[in-house]
Amino acid sequence: MKNTVSILALAAFLAVTSCKKTDNQITASSAEAGTEEKFAVDSVKINDSIRIGDSLAVRYASRMLVFPGVKDKALLDSIYFQDKKIQDFSKTGLQALLEKNKNEYFNEMRKDSKDYLSDMTFAQQWYSDMGMNLKSNTNGYLHIEYAWGSYAGGAHDNYGFSERIFDLKNKRKVELKDITSLSKTKLEALLMKNINTIRSGTTDNGDDVKNSEMLLVDVIPATDNFYFDDKNMYFHYSPYEIAAFAAGDLVIPVSWQELKGSLNPEFKERMSIQQ
Predict the structure, then answer these.
(1) How far apart are CA 54 and CA 103, in angstroms?
(2) Which residues, 6 or more positions from 105, have their beta carbon under 8 angstroms from its beta carbon?
(3) How far is CA 36 from CA 33, 57, 75, 179, 264, in A?
(4) Is residue 78 packed enough to be buried (19+ CB in 10 Å), middle (13-18) or exposed (0-12)?
(5) Please, are residues 6 and 35 in contact by the beta-carbon 8 Å criterion?
(6) For each of the chain's 275 residues, which pLDDT tens digit applies?
(7) Could you give the 3-state DSSP secondary structure of residue 71?
(8) What whole-number distance in Å separates Cα of residue 223 and Cα of residue 234?
(9) Are 95 and 104 in contact (CB under 8 A)?
(10) Is the CB of residue 105 less than 8 Å from the CB of residue 49?
(11) N or C of the chain: less Cβ packing under 10 Å?
């Protein structure tokens, strides 16, 4: 099932982002980052584990990107939206934050596991993985993907993604209205039309599964969880958001051609979109 594939893929991604050696002054102009301009990027990471009793191991891993050249406080607050209390955005400050978050997580797991330890009949590993991944920096639009995965008992892991685009020129997060003026109703119709564009996966017996067959909603909302390239916008939905867990996370593309006549002129020019 696709949920198994998705969890393994996420685990591989988080393993790379959490365990990779810290890069000093990486430039986003590298081919791997798919960027056009030099943009200084560093990172901090933490990966630690503890044992609680004989049957339970708990692991915490996290990786955060560091942007030494970004000084605008409002933009930094938006980039690190997951923690509203950050005051020190330096490498040292963010490393200290990871250490603090790790200790808080371990203390929480020690407390939460007390009621379960006596009933554990086999060894388990609970975990929390979080990672920031630089996807692109094109035409002054910085795309960061935030991924997380966790397990604290139960039937399966949980995981999800948050896609955010930052306008480095205007120093703010890009909103849907900055790209298109298409009405909510028309955009939702396009999302439903394109739901099966990107293949979902296969069942255990090898049969193809369509995303539309696992939907939990009648209308697919135009989420703020989107990104784009030179051909399409992509709307990213985490498990359970619009479909059954077996569908995994879903990405639905909407082409620039389908948005013809509704694109913001400044955005269209910066992205050199031809329609």
Answers:
(1) 20
(2) 58, 60, 128
(3) 9, 43, 21, 21, 22
(4) middle
(5) no
(6) 444 444 444 444 444 343 333 333 333 433 334 444 578 999 999 999 999 988 899 999 999 999 999 999 999 999 999 988 899 999 999 999 999 999 999 999 999 888 778 777 788 999 999 999 999 999 999 999 999 999 988 778 999 999 999 999 999 999 999 999 999 999 999 999 999 998 765 445 446 789 999 999 999 999 999 999 999 999 999 999 999 988 999 999 999 999 999 999 999 999 999 98
(7) coil
(8) 10
(9) no
(10) no
(11) C
Strand partners, 149: 129, 159
- pTM for this one? 0.84
Helix or strand holding residue 19 (H, E): helix 2-19
Tokens 């609970």 correspond to 126
Q: How far apart are CA 110 and CA 8, in angstroms?
A: 26
| Tokens 């003026």 -> residue | 181
Which are the contacts of 29, defined by CB distance < 8 A and separation ≥ 6?
Answer: 35, 36, 37, 38, 39
Two structure tokens written together for 182: 């298409």
Cβ-Cβ contacts under 8 Å for 243 (sequence gap 6 or more): 211, 214, 215, 216, 237, 250
Q: How far is CA 85 from CA 27, 82, 259, 272, in A?
A: 27, 9, 38, 38
| Tokens coding 118 | 């006596």
Task: Pull the structure tokens for residue 184.
Answer: 């909510």
Q: How far apart are CA 129 and CA 9, in angstroms?
A: 13
> What are phi and psi for residue 174, nearest 5 degrees?
-80, 130
d(CA 261, CA 256): 10
Tokens of 17: 């982002």
Helix %, strand %, coil % of the chain (to 5): 30, 30, 40
